[in-house]
């Protein structure tokens, strides 16, 4: 019996439920006319091992309700991390959700989707009233699973599952160092050194110092910079720009100066601009190599974490 005195803010209740991280599934069946039916559901859970049983719940307002109420079978597809588009598609109403999909058939001719993290083909065992939902309990007749990482859902957003720690820390070879291989500074240092090596080789051959290279980058990003402005922009690199360094840069004819005194402004020459573009293209191609095997989420996470490290270590 529900408590009539208990007033629940449904938004707060949803938010609290969202604290429970789940996977994302698509549950499919066939209706009485033989049409394929399915929807995205995160209410999936395990029930019993012997016999193998699972459950999920369906809103009574769902357009798929009658098909699941009459159908003897259904299939639960645990989605893989790269199947978010499929989840979006099956959470919409009034569209042909199966259009263009390659389907297999399971028990009771239910449609089966491919490339999932796991699939459970079930016979409907029980249906229970659960407030504004119907709870379906199914006995698993067949199942399969793959090595695809799963799609997750948390706090109303899609998420990815990240293991808490690397089981096998990276083995960085050929580095004779007293630092532990997991020391953050060591890892950042090796990554940065390897990432910049090809670009570094190039500007060294051009006769540039590291400071000169950074000045070039600063001037490629913005025109007409005074010495003071360049110095300010150089700060994160740890370099200081003195007159000697500036003199050497001007000799390379990659940089030019207009005016006199502290207000004189520096710019790239056409040759300097061409060279900066060349370095940029080279740096981008090295970056592509460096991020091989990382998807968009991994990369965004990596960049965010590095930004935090930079913030935390700023003096
Ligand atoms: C991540 C996610 C999880 C969902 N979980 C459920 C669920 O467990 N049960 C449910 O009835 N609807 C759930 N929905 C909403 C349905 O997918 C959505 O209402 C869909 O339009 C229903 O389709 P239908 O009306 O064609 O049956 C979920 C949606 C999303 C995006």
Please give a quick description of this structure.
The protein is an alpha+beta fold.
- Fraction in beta strands: 25-35%
- Gap from first CA to last CA: 60 Å
CATH architectural name of the largest domain = Roll
Q: Which parts are unreliable, with pLDDT below 50 for 5 consecutive residues or more?
A: none
* Estimated structural class: alpha+beta
Q: Can you tell me the CATH topology of the largest domain? A: Pnp Oxidase, Chain A
Please give the largest β-sheet. Answer: 7 strands, antiparallel
The CATH homology group name of the largest domain: Electron Transport, Fmn-binding Protein, Chain A
Mean pLDDT: 91
Highest CATH level, the class of the largest domain: Mainly Beta
Shape from CA axes?
Answer: elongated
- Radius of gyration computed on alpha carbons: 30 Å
Ligand set:
flavin mononucleotide
Count up the domains.
2
Strand order of the largest sheet: 3-2-6-9-10-5-4
Helical residue percent band: 25-40%
User: What's the β-strand tally?
Assistant: 15
What is the H/E order?
HEEEEEHEHEEEEEEHHEHHEEHH
| Number of alpha- plus pi-helical segments | 9
């Amino acid at each position: 019996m529900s408590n009539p005195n208990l007033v629940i803010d449904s938004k707060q209740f949803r938010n609290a439920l969202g604290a429970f991280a789940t996977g994302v599934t698509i549950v499919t069946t066939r209706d009485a006319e033989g049409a394929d039916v399915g929807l995205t559901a995160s209410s999936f859970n395990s029930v019993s091992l012997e016999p193998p049983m699972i459950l999920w719940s369906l809103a009574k307002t769902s357009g798929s309700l009658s098909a699941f109420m009459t159908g003897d079978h259904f299939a639960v597809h645990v989605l893989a991390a790269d199947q978010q588009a499929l989840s979006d598609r099956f959470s919409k109403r009034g569209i042909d959700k199966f259009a263009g999909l390659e389907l297999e058939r399971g028990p009771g001719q239910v449609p089966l989707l491919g490339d999932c993290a796991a699939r459970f083909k079930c016979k409907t065992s029980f249906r229970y009233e659960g407030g504004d939902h119907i709870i379906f309990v199914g006995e698993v007749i067949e199942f399969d699973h793959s090595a695809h990482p799963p799609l997750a859902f948390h706090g109303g957003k899609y998420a990815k599952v990240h293991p808490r720690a690397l089981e096998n820390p990276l083995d960085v070879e050929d580095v004779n160092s007293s630092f532990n291989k997991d020391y953050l500074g060591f890892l950042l240092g090796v990554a940065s050194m390897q990432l910049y090596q090809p670009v570094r080789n190039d500007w060294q051959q051009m006769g540039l110092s590291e400071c000169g290279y950074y000045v070039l980058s600063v001037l490629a990003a913005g025109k007409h910079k005074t010495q003071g402005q360049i110095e300010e922009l150089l700060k994160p690199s740890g370099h200081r720009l003195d007159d000697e360094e500036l003199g050497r840069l001007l000799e390379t004819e990659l940089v030019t100066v207009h005016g006199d005194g502290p207000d004189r402004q520096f710019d790239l020459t056409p040759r300097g601009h061409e060279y900066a573009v060349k370095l940029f293209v080279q740096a981008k191609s090295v970056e592509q190599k460096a991020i091989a095997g990382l998807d968009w989420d991994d990369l965004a996470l990596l960049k965010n974490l590095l930004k935090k490290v930079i913030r935390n270590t700023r003096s």
